[in-house]
Design goal:
The chain is mainly alpha-helical. It contains 19 helices and six strands.
Length: 487
């Protein structure tokens, strides 16, 4: 392009100092004037390279920009002008703030195009960028899981395929109607087991054994055994079919599953074998201690409830707010219990015997419970109780709002990610279908030009439109998906 007659010779006066050079940059129709002394602060950036490329000929210029007007010395770029306005702040302020409404991933790509290091991005904006990256990774993970479920690898053994089917059947209730029925049955077994555990403690429903000890009704024991059998079978099948046994065994929900069924087998072992090794009374105490661990099975409901999972995540993300709540309460409990003990000492029938005992009163007062087993009797003590009550309400109310916000934010985020994953799959399927249709149309046109009609022609039509074809598993990716473009 150096010999193109449309452009005059590029000014190659080397005596001109870069600091005095003025260039005009047109980004998406927005013109900006820059001076060399500003741009040369960061010589590795694209704008700084524009100053030095003027002496390198048009090949050097057009390697950096989309177009160039030598008369105006104006460089043209077909880029996002809003992102560019934010990026050029690095030359004036030494840092970059991302404008609200700009996609963080697209902004990162713009910074890479202008060769500006991400270290100049402010910390608050880096947080948005990291959150968006996590969202995209989560969408990609969900899409990949769906693709893995749809995929059938012919090279896999029949046992591997069977493992995948069992895992999909037990872990993905939405995959088929029988899987949904199984999930509902599992949910019902959890509820029945929890109800049986509670009902079994009612004295009227208990029976007396030969030694005069109360025990659960045999019918309830049979129901309990059936529930434990279901839980055991479910856990064993999921363990066998799990693609990663170690990760499965260390997962929190799977640990809960073990704690839900383990006490039954330990109690059974102690009942039949423990009597030979220790006294019967000790065996019964050990069995009772283990039976209380059955309450862990109620946590199995979290596996079938997205609401409980969302609440758990919100609490994990709210450790700071919960810590503040505990700190406020701890300070208030210490202060008001000490004041209550001091003010109540003048009363002859005081219930505040010591400050540690007063802690209990301060706890139930500040948390608005008020059992009434300990209460102030003096006027100053009652005034102290009223103030502690009001302070407790305020201390509890302050951190609640951020916790609720975390819950709502995570819940909405999960819905958005689920919708985005579905849209991504629809787009992939649409692109695959368009590519196949274009290929089929070209193939048909070639056959028509060659005049190949008859049985062969009809068979080709059948292959093009009737073969078993999984759109989402096409190995040839001729189209960029929304997710790939954003990355």
């Amino acid at each position: 392009m150096a010999g193109d007659s449309r452009f005059p010779d590029v000014d190659t006066d080397r005596s001109e100092k870069n600091e005095e050079t003025e260039i005009v940059v047109n980004v998406g129709g927005v013109r900006q004037v820059f001076y060399g002394d500003n741009l040369n602060q960061y010589p590795e950036t694209r704008l700084a390279e524009l100053i030095n490329c003027l002496s390198g000929g048009y090949d050097s210029i057009f390697s950096l920009c989309d177009d160039y007007d030598p008369g105006k010395r104006e460089f043209y770029f077909d880029r996002d002008p809003d992102a560019f306005k934010c990026i050029i702040d690095v030359y004036y302020f030494g840092e970059i703030h991302m404008k609200k409404g700009i996609c963080p991933i697209c902004f990162k790509n713009e910074m890479e195009f202008w060769k500006v290091d991400l270290k100049f991005l402010d910390d608050c904006c880096k947080t948005h960028l990291s959150e968006k990256k996590e969202e995209l990774e989560e969408i990609a993970r969900r899409v990949q899981l769906i693709l893995d479920d749809l995929g059938v690898d012919a090279s896999e053994s029949s046992w591997k395929r069977c493992q995948k089917c069992i895992w999909k059947f037990l872990e993905k209730p939405e995959s088929s109607y029988p899987a949904r029925v199984t999930a509902v049955l599992s949910f019902l077994f959890i509820l029945i087991s929890s109800v049986v555990m509670c009902v079994g403690t009612i004295p009227d429903l208990q029976v007396v054994d030969a030694e005069g000890n109360r025990m659960e009704h045999p019918t309830l024991d049979s129901i309990e055994t059936a529930c434990i059998g279901w839980f055991t079978m479910e856990y064993v099948l999921r363990l066998i079919s799990s693609p990663n046994k170690l990760h499965f065994a260390l997962s929190f929900m799977n640990i809960v599953d073990v704690l839900a069924i383990l006490p039954f087998y330990v109690s059974l072992t102690l009942t039949h074998l423990g009597a030979k090794l220790m006294e019967l009374s000790n065996v019964q105490q050990a069995v009772q201690a283990l039976r209380i661990m059955r309450i862990a099975r109620i946590f199995k409901l979290a596996r079938h409830s997205s609401g409980l999972q969302t609440l758990t995540y919100a609490l994990k993300r709210s450790f700071k707010e919960l810590g503040l709540l505990l700190m406020y309460l701890a300070v208030g409990i210490f202060v008001f219990s000490a004041l209550g003990y001091t003010m109540e000492q003048s009363h002859p029938e005081t219930l505040f015997k010591s400050i540690p005992q007063s802690f209990w009163w301060a706890i139930i007062t500040m948390t608005t419970v008020g059992y009434g087993d300990i209460y102030p009797k003096t006027t100053l003590g009652k005034l102290n109780a009223a103030i502690s009550f009001l302070c407790g309400v305020i201390a509890i109310a302050l951190p609640i709002h951020p916790i609720i916000n975390n819950f709502v934010r995570y819940y909405n985020k999960q819905r958005v990610l689920e919708t985005a994953a579905k849209h991504e799959l629809e787009l992939m399927e649409l692109n695959s279908a368009e590519g196949k249709a274009a290929s089929s149309k070209s193939e048909l046109e070639d056959l028509a030009r060659e005049g190949k009609e008859g049985p062969f022609y009809s068979s080709r039509l059948k292959v093009s439109y009737s073969d078993t074809y999984i759109h989402l598993l096409s190995e040839e990716k001729h189209y960029r998906t929304r997710l790939q473009s954003c990355k």
